[in-house]
């Protein structure tokens, strides 16, 4: 494994921690600033929206900068945002800090995916991408529970100081280990946006929104589901989230490994299994043991789609992969926001705390249909290319004989 992948994973660990740890310390933050919990929820929503808009914006602004320098700039932005959150004198400043740190999120993973794929042989690209995302999955196992514990014991500001320190380590890792290569192939904004002329790029982002959104439809409301339906205590939810994080970690590694061999079959199988698991969760949520097992399975299947989807975008936009890759990261967060909203709608309608699982199954099932469409279009394109290549070969045969 190239050491540069370790540097990218460290950065991903810090970003993953700051994204999700706010959920664990939200009551403390709300209490300190004297705002309601729903109002404090803007620290979550604002971050997600910052990722959606920041990913393409910063990627476009960095088209004429080497990818290494851009990654270093993004980690600097991340450190500034979290430091601002740590010392924020008011809720408004805290929100600004969250948005600043979120701007680095999508562009870091988007550019990082391109860098990671370029560090290895073509047949190992998906595995390299999964190794970078491993930092994000480990954050859900270690960083988020640890940050929540520290925030509850020593104060939430200490948590954000530690996260900012992680950003410094990530910056130093990128500066030291990532090679000074990888200047974007396209140096104009127009060329970068040309990638979106390919319908496959749009299909991939739609699959990302719906497939990963299916996971977050369930996980967003996991606390009331596990306490009110499964019968767990609130304290046990932290450990259930650790199980979910372990599932994400394993799914990410396996998804990268198998996507290198057969990408589309891997994606189709995973989306089908995820849809089934979400449907099953409606029933298993009533049993403590089965609920914990299903939750881990959903984490594994959900994150097993990340490496193949990210590599699929890179494959479909070979001339301008950076913006397409970053936009796909924004699509993950758009899926999170959409799923959380839809899950809240069905709960508010009185359909119960397990109803978001049905929403998740519909979303991931729709992603499966789009994946089937993408696979069919890909086969058709490959067939047309072979026909054209064959006709060119036949036309060139007489000329070859004459010579």
Architecture overview:
The protein has helices at about 5-35, 35-40, 40-60, 65-85, 90-120, 125-155, 155-175, 190-195, 200-220, 220-230, 235-260, 265-285, 290-305, 305-315, 320-350, 355-400. With about 400 residues, the chain is mainly alpha-helical. The chain has 2 domains: about 1-180, Growth Hormone, Chain: A (Up-down Bundle), CATH 1.20.1250; about 185-385, MFS general substrate transporter like domains (Growth Hormone, Chain: A, Up-down Bundle). The protein is globular, with a radius of gyration of 22 Å. The mean pLDDT is about 85.
Regions with pLDDT < 50 over 5+ consecutive residues? none
Task: Give the structural class.
Answer: mainly alpha
Overall tally of domains:
2
CATH fold assignment of the largest domain: Growth Hormone, Chain: A
Helix content: over 70%
Q: Identify the CATH class of the largest domain.
A: Mainly Alpha
CATH architecture of the largest domain: Up-down Bundle
Major sheet details: none
Run of helices and strands: HHHHHHHHHHHHHHHH
H/I helix tally: 16
Give the CATH H-level superfamily of the largest domain.
MFS general substrate transporter like domains
The averaged pLDDT comes out at 84
Overall radius of gyration: 22 Å
Query: What's the β-strand tally?
Result: 0
Provide a brief overview of the structure.
It is built from 16 helices and no strands. The protein is an all-alpha fold and 403 residues long.
Layout of strands and helices, then pairs:
Layout: H1 3-33, H2 37-40, H3 42-61, H4 67-87, H5 91-118, H6 125-154, H7 156-177, H8 189-193, H9 199-219, H10 222-230, H11 234-261, H12 263-284, H13 288-304, H14 306-316, H15 321-348, H16 355-402
Helix pairs in contact: 1-3, 1-5, 1-6, 1-7, 3-5, 3-15, 4-5, 4-7, 5-6, 5-15, 6-7, 6-11, 6-14, 9-12, 9-13, 9-14, 9-15, 9-16, 11-12, 11-13, 11-14, 12-13, 12-16, 14-15, 15-16
């Amino acid at each position: 494994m190239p050491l540069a992948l370790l540097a990218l994973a460290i950065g991903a660990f810090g970003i993953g921690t700051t994204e999700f740890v706010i959920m664990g310390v939200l009551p403390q933050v709300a209490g300190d600033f004297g705002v309601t919990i729903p109002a404090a929820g803007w620290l979550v929503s604002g971050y997600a929206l910052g990722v959606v808009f920041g990913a393409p914006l910063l990627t476009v602004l960095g088209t004429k900068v080497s990818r290494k320098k851009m990654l270093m700039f993004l980690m600097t932005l991340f450190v500034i945002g979290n430091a601002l959150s740590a010392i924020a004198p008011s809720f408004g400043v805290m929100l600004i800090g969250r948005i600043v740190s979120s701007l680095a999120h999508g562009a870091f993973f988007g550019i990082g995916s391109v860098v990671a794929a370029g560090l290895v042989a073509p047949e190992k690209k998906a595995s390299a991408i999964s190794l970078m995302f491993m930092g994000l999955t480990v954050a859900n196992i270690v960083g988020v529970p640890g940050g929540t514990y520290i925030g509850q014991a020593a104060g939430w500001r200490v948590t954000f100081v530690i996260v900012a320190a992680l950003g410094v380590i990530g910056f130093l890792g990128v500066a030291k280990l990532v090679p000074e290569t990888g200047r974007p192939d396209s140096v104009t904004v127009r060329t970068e946006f040309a990638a979106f002329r390919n319908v496959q790029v749009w299909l991939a982002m739609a699959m990302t929104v719906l497939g990963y959104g299916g996971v977050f439809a369930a996980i967003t409301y996991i606390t009331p589901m596990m306490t009110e339906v499964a019968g767990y205590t609130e304290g046990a939810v932290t450990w259930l989230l650790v199980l979910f994080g372990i599932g994400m970690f394993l799914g990410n590694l396996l998804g990268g490994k198998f996507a290198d061999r057969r990408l589309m079959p891997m994606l189709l199988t995973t989306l089908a299994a995820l849809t089934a698991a979400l449907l099953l969760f409606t029933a298993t949520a009533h049993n403590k043991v089965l609920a914990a097992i299903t939750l881990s399975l959903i984490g594994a299947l959900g994150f097993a789609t990340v490496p193949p989807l990210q590599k699929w975008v890179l494959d479909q936009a070979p001339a301008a992969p950076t913006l397409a890759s970053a936009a796909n990261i924004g699509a993950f967060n758009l899926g999170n926001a959409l799923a959380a909203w839809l899950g809240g709608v069905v709960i508010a309608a009185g359909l119960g705390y397990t109803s978001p699982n049905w929403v998740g199954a519909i979303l991931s099932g729709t992603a499966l249909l789009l994946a089937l469409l993408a696979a069919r279009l890909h086969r058709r394109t490959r067939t047309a290319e072979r026909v054209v290549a064959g006709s060119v070969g036949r036309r060139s045969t007489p000329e070859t004989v004459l010579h």
